[in-house]
Write a structure and sequence with these properties.
By secondary structure, the chain is an alpha/beta fold. It contains four helices and four strands; from the N terminus they run ββαβαβαα. The protein has one domain: 2-Layer Sandwich (Transcription Regulator spoIIAA). The radius of gyration is 15 Å and the shape is globular.
């Protein structure tokens, strides 16, 4: 059974954080965009999308994130992303958006340097299936 998208909204001063859990795909992108539109229309000065709990993202989800970024730009609202787990970050790498989007520190206090993490992963030797 597919995991639906859940969005938890929190606020700290002018910063609104949307924590995405589940799957960001064609079926769920309208929900994210509607929530972001609601926040910037109400005067949010900063919007952070926390991808740390996102299990899956496809090209529709990526397009939705780019739409949210544009929406923020139109409303003079700062926009940032908190990096997701490796499978989610991989989409940003293969589309070469990893260096073009504003990733920030993770909520665990580690530097959200997605490029350095990707380079470190690439430096690891690949293991053959069944190899320990």
């Amino acid at each position: 059974m597919a995991s639906v998208l859940s969005i938890h909204s929190s606020r700290e001063g002018d910063r609104h954080t949307l924590t995405l859990t589940g799957e960001l795909d064609m079926a769920s992108t309208p929900v994210l965009e509607a929530k972001a539109n609601q926040l910037v229309s109400q005067g949010a000065r900063e919007l952070v999308l926390d991808l740390g709990q996102l299990e899956f993202i496809d090209s529709s989800g990526l397009t939705s994130i780019l739409r949210v970024r544009s929406l923020c730009e139109e409303h003079m609202c700062d926009f940032a992303l908190t990096p997701g787990e490796r499978p989610v970050q991989r989409l940003f790498e293969v589309t070469r958006l990893i260096d073009k989007l504003p990733f920030r520190r993770s909520r665990h206090g580690k530097r959200g340097d997605a490029r350095a993490e990707a380079d470190a992963d690439a430096a690891q030797p690949a293991r053959a299936e069944g190899e320990a």
